[in-house]
């Protein structure tokens, strides 16, 4: 309740795997229902731009960054 974050989402290529990861990481308590699952893929620039227009902050965990990082940075720059 005291967090300055008003919303939180996870994004990746596979929504099912993201949901499973969130459930695993939140054990033994169920994950908060307020965490949205979004689909984005570094090989799909449109999906990255859609992601960037929905957020103010992206924590990029894509890897290896030298291969998959540039599309994420470009989408962030394009989206302002």
Structure description:
- The longest helix has 15 residues, at 65-79.
- The protein has helices at 15-25, 45-53, 65-79, and strands spanning 8-12, 35-39.
- The N and C termini lie far apart (29 Å).
- The protein has a two-stranded parallel ribbon.
- The protein is α+β, with helices and mostly antiparallel strands.
- The model has no long low-confidence stretch (mean pLDDT 87).
Question: What is this entry, summarized?
Answer:
With 80 residues, this protein is α+β, with helices and mostly antiparallel strands.
* Measured distance between first and last alpha carbons: 29 Å
The largest pleated sheet is described as:
2 strands, parallel
Structural class: alpha+beta
Strand order of the largest sheet: 1-2
Strand content: 5-15%
Spatial extent as radius of gyration: 14 Å
Number of helices in the DSSP assignment: 3
What series of H and E elements makes up the topology? EHEHH
Question: Helix amount, in percent?
Answer: 40-55%
Low-confidence segments, given as residue ranges, are: none
- Quaternary state of the chains: single chain
Record field, number of beta strands:
2
| Global morphology | globular
Mean pLDDT: 87
Please describe the structure with a list of short key phrases separated by commas or semicolons.
alpha+beta, two-stranded parallel sheet, 12% strand
SSE map:
Layout: E1 8-12, H1 15-25, E2 35-39, H2 45-53, H3 65-79
Parallel strand pairs: 1-2
């Amino acid at each position: 309740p005291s967090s300055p974050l008003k919303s939180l989402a996870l994004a990746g290529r596979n929504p099912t795997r993201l949901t499973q990861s969130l459930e695993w990481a939140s054990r033994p308590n169920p994950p908060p229902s307020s965490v949205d699952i979004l689909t984005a893929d570094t090989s799909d620039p449109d999906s990255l731009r859609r992601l960037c227009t929905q957020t103010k902050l992206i924590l990029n965990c894509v890897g290896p960054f030298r291969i998959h990082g540039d599309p994420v940075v470009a989408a962030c720059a394009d989206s302002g």
